[in-house]
Each structure stands twice: as structure tokens, then as C-alpha cells.
Amino acid sequence: MRGTSSASLQAVEDRFEPVLRAAGTQARTLGDELFQLVDALDASGSLRRTLADPSLAPDAKADLAARLLARADARTVEVVQALVRSRWSADADLADAAERLAFRAVLHSAEAEGLLGTVEEELFIVVRALAGQREVRRSLLDPAYPAQARGTLAEGLLGGAGTAVTHAIVRRAAVAPRGRQFVTTLQHVGDLLAEMRNRQVATVLTAAPLSAGQRERLTDLVGRALGRAVQLNVVVDPHVVGGLRVQAGADVIDATVLARLADARRQLAG
């Protein structure tokens, strides 16, 4: 999301942030209601285009949003009205913004319970558990597989454990993928978590587990390279013959033996 849409989203997030903090555990309800709006926008192109149409009066769109959310919490109505009064580069950006705010709301409910770090760890465990399960990943994205069944499958990855918020997030990612891979959605939520904790998530692929000292040194090195604190998620991948690969957003530091061999082959090929 860029340009006008990015600026609009930032303005609404800044306005909604203190509301979410004040809501405490009730922020979960606000998130659920925002997810319902996302579903409505995804299901109706005409509704989405109307609410994002820059040629329509902002107050008229806000009134329509209030009617649609007549049974919703007043705080949800307020943020949705702020969304539809804003300008968007594309009507799809409105739905994406609502989804982002919904995930933030759910995460704030975990923060109010002191469980934000736990949710972060549990989501990473789910992502790691899927590393070698190609068929499960396909099922989680297969539109022929019933949505509720996908949700149950996703929650099953937690093995009967996990916080209520983590269960809600993984279920939402499976039931409403919105054209994304299941893991991509969880990584998106992980980025939101990092923002809330004022850190960036860096994923490390390595052939063998790192010691506590190695993790600490690598966290410091990557943080200095990126200019901000990082959360290091380590994934052991037997295909990494040696060295390691670090990815933080669009930044990739690849020092694996395989990467060096690939570079050599490209140089020899001319």
C-alpha cells in the first residue's frame, strides 16, 4: 500500500491506537467486527467501490457505514467512518486497511492480557511446523476445501495448546486467506507484532540450531545492520549446507554455502 492509501492508513491507525489501548481485552470484539466488515467488502465489489469512491461525499459514506454497522460497538463504527472518509488509491486498499486494523485490534487484546510475546512465539511455532508439510499447506489454501474445515485444520497445528488470540489468528488466516498463502498472513501478523513491540522480525535459516551466545551475537549484528532492534526467529533447514540466510522484510543477507556455489556457477556461465 503506497501513496495516498498509505497516508490514509497511517492517519487512521494513529487515531485508532489510543482507542485500542483503552479498550483492553475488549479490543478483541472490535477486531471481530472489523473482520466482518472485511468479509462484506470482499463479498461485494459494489459496496467496496461505493465506500472507497472519492467522488462521493465523505459524510454520506460515513452514514452508510453506520447503517451497515448498526449493531456494532460505537468504537468500531467510529474507526470505520474514519476509514471511509479517507482517500484510497484503489478500492481494494480500503478492505486491506480494515483487515490490518482488525488484526491490530486482536493483538491489542493479547497485549492487555500480557500475552503478546506468547502469541508471537506461538505463531512462529505454527509457521515452523508447516515447513515440511506441503500437503497441509495446500489444503489450507485450497478453495475446494470448506472454509470451516480449513480453520479447524489450522487450529490443529497448535496441538491443543495456544492462547485464544493465537487460535483466532490462525483460524482467520485459514478461513479468509484473501488470495494469500496461510504462512504469508501469519508473517504479516508477525510484522504487526514487531511494530507494536517496536522491533523488526528477522528470519534466520541455518543448518543447525544456534547457541544462546550465537543468537545474541547475530541479533546484535542484524540489528546494527538494519538500524533498529530485531526479533530473531531461527528456522533449522537441513538444505542449508553451511552458513546462514537472514531475511528482514525486503532485506536479505545470504551467506550459505549453497548461495556461494550458485554465485560461482553464474560467474562461470559468463
TrEMBL record:
<keyword id="KW-0472">Membrane</keyword>
<comment type="function">
    <text>This protein is part of the stalk that links CF(0) to CF(1). It either transmits conformational changes from CF(0) to CF(1) or is implicated in proton conduction.</text>
</comment>
<dbReference type="InterPro" id="IPR020781">
    <property type="entry name" value="ATPase_OSCP/d_CS"/>
</dbReference>
<dbReference type="GO" id="GO:0046933">
    <property type="term" value="F:proton-transporting ATP synthase activity, rotational mechanism"/>
</dbReference>
<keyword id="KW-1003">Cell membrane</keyword>
<comment type="similarity">
    <text>Belongs to the ATPase delta chain family.</text>
</comment>
<protein>
    <recommendedName>
        <fullName>ATP synthase subunit delta</fullName>
    </recommendedName>
</protein>
<keyword id="KW-0406">Ion transport</keyword>
<dbReference type="InterPro" id="IPR000711">
    <property type="entry name" value="ATPase_OSCP/dsu"/>
</dbReference>
<keyword id="KW-0139">CF(1)</keyword>
<keyword id="KW-0066">ATP synthesis</keyword>
<keyword id="KW-0813">Transport</keyword>
<dbReference type="GO" id="GO:0045259">
    <property type="term" value="C:proton-transporting ATP synthase complex"/>
</dbReference>
<dbReference type="GO" id="GO:0005886">
    <property type="term" value="C:plasma membrane"/>
</dbReference>
<keyword id="KW-0375">Hydrogen ion transport</keyword>
<dbReference type="Pfam" id="PF00213">
    <property type="entry name" value="OSCP"/>
</dbReference>
<comment type="function">
    <text>F(1)F(0) ATP synthase produces ATP from ADP in the presence of a proton or sodium gradient. F-type ATPases consist of two structural domains, F(1) containing the extramembraneous catalytic core and F(0) containing the membrane proton channel, linked together by a central stalk and a peripheral stalk. During catalysis, ATP synthesis in the catalytic domain of F(1) is coupled via a rotary mechanism of the central stalk subunits to proton translocation.</text>
</comment>
